[in-house]
Amino acid sequence: MRMTSRELQTSTRGVWHGAPPSEVFGLSSDTRTLKKGEVFLALRGPTFDGHQFGSEAMERGASVLVVDRKGDSAGGALWESVKLPRLVVNNTLEALGDIAGAWRKQLPVTVVAITGSYGKTTVRSMLEHGLRRLGLNVAATKANDNNLIGVPQTILSIEPDVDIALVECGVSEAGEMRRLARMLQPDVAMIIGLAPAHAEGLGDLRGVAHEKGVLLQHLTENGCAVLGAGVSAVMREQGFSPDMVCMDMDDSPDGSVVRWQIRDSHCLLQLGGETATVELNVPAQHQAADMALAATVIHHLTQKGIGEIAEGLSGWRAVPGRMQCLPGVHASIILHDAYNANPASMAAALDTLRRMPGRHFAVLGDMAELGEASAFLHAALDVSGIDGLILAGRRMKALADICATAQWVPDADAAMLAAKKLSPGTGDVVLIKGSRCMGLEKVVDALTSGETQGGKVDAV
Question: Domain 324-455 classified CATH 3.90.190.20?
Answer without folding.
Answer: yes
